[in-house]
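User: Sequence in, structure out. Go.
Assistant: Echoing your sequence, followed by the structure tokens.
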Amino acid sequence: MPDDVKVEDVSHSKGSGMPFQKRKQLEQDIQHISQEMHRRNADLAETNKILSLLGTIDALVLQSHASLKTVTEHITEAIVQSTDFDFVGLMTRSVHSQDELMLNGWSGKEWLGQRGDPPALSHPLVIDLSHPWFEVVDTSSIFSLSGISDEAMSKLLNVSISDVKRVRKLIPMKSVYIMKLLARRQIVGLLIVGFETDETTLKDNDKALLNRLSESIGLALDNKLLFEENKHVLRQLKDSNAKLQALDEAKDDFISMASHQLRTPLTSIKGYTSMVLEGDAGKITPTQEKLLTQS
């Protein structure tokens, strides 16, 4: 074979001037870049979802005219609409009681645009803060509801067994993820996420989302509670001031009436005293005159 004739490089692919190994490496690089872009787009979408929810929560809390119940209801609706969670509930500290949490807002996939409002309870759903779970360090826990009887649930939530059965029928949850909402080192509420499956773990991105939300919601609820408590104190002060004004008016009326009632007999007494001093009732002694003229 002549020296100037070269054997075709088998590492080249047919119809291509690029070596096979190099082309293979390029394809792997493109695939890696595509996967990385997909991951970053997913992260960006998750971040945008979180920022959107946080913005919605902040906007709701800034509505000073809205009640605490209205705000919590709108927060739960916003979370359900933006996530895959089947159910979201918010329990908050009562303005009138520091020892219990009350369910103020709840929403679920089943009601949004389909069944309307969540089912109404005959009694408020309340949890006492003296429950042992509130003493543990963990700020979140996931519970399976399959093994909890209606009677146990009724006792825990301080509602009737009929309410428990009705809600369980309307909300077919098999597990719940509960997070303590903290502000100023105090529990201001609970964020409850329900699942229609018997979940034993939570996805990392869902857990990250709930952690971010719990911080924001905790601060938001604390600010709203402080605002509501200030309004409550202001109402009490206004009521107390109104009562004091009423008492002051009653005092003035009493003094005016007493003065009027006393003035009439005193005028008569003064007139008769003058007559006695003038001798209309007979001559008086110097001692009597002295006593009658003393003021």
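User: And one key feature?
Assistant: The two ends are 156 Å apart (CA to CA).
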